[in-house]
Amino acid sequence: MKYELFLTSAVLIFTLSGCGKEQTERIPDEPEADTEFVLELVITDSIGVELGDSNYVFGSIEASSHTAEGNILVLDRPACCVREYTPDGDFVKNFGRRGSGPGEFYNPLSMVRLNDGRVSIFDMQTGMSVFLAEGEWDGITAEIFGEPVMWLTAADSNRYIGTINDFEIIDDQPILTAYVGRFEINETEPSLIYWENSFVFDFSNSSQIVEDAYFAKTWASDRDGNVFLASRDTEEYLITGFDTNGDEFVEISMDLPAVQKSEEEIAEETEFWNQRAKNMGYGGQLNYQPDPYRWKIHSMGIDSQSKLWVRRGTEEIPTFDVFDYEGNHLFAAHIPSIIGADGLLWEVRVDEFGILAWSLNPLDGYQKLYTLELASN
Hints:
The protein is mainly beta. The chain has a single domain, classed as Neuraminidase, CATH 2.120.10.30. Helix content is 11%, strand content 42%. It contains 3 helices and 27 strands. The strands form 6 sheets. The protein has an 8-stranded mixed β-sheet, with no helix packed on it. Helix 1 (2-15) crosses helix 3. It is globular, with a radius of gyration of 20 Å. The termini are far apart. The relative contact order is 0.17. Residues 1-34 have low confidence and may be disordered.
């Protein structure tokens, strides 16, 4: 049974992509849509080509972030490596490559740059490999014996935030427990749990593991140990902030109207993920049924000024509400150059060095990584 769960999880992984302890609640007043002032995010540069130098051809971008010096890191899963580029887009080096030897990977799924500058890459076959900032492999800090830790973000003291699933048989029923927690660099069990959810697992229901486990929550964390956690919910917009001790210190909510997906959008989403599964070697249909409504919160990030960027899942154009750590709504921002339903398949990452974005389904058939910044007034 455990092996069967791992296969199911693997297919879904391949296919989908300083505050006080006193708790407060701030519910920002959202301006009317026709009067809201929205700042513009503009694309300033791109990395990636369709053909040519292999260091600039991406197979599938799974994650991106920055080094401690501000260089750009891109995890390319099919290439089995993390590539480093200068802010101007010049290739610097690779961390890892395909293979079974030291510092090599079969299926790298997540990465995180630690506070000391090292780069950690989580591979489903081998575990957590760590590389020195110079690119030299520094060993495996945590081996994999079950489910991988996914969607890594950096925390304090070389810790990271991620999600992991635990599977067991209880009273002859398969029970899956999903966690979002803080992990030590040498452990695959969370040292602090922010959220957990247990349910009877149906192997034939691909949508269940998406909605109740892997994609149930989204979060952002800073390098001081603060974590913001939100449900990917179609009815509620609610974010909870936790300090380094795991104590709640703020709740942020907004009143966003529910947005129903069109029949065309649902059909395209279903076909997109099923086709991507086939491209990754999965024979058959996923039986994945999209929710008829859009998430209210898509994803989050934290910038260099401790501002929380929260992407609205309801908008086709990538749109962000930006808050301070007390929950005050500072401004909204969007990327007007990304238009139409294709914007729903863009990933955007905000960290202390800037904003990076890429399309999961690029119109020109190959991926680029884009750098963005707020437009000058």
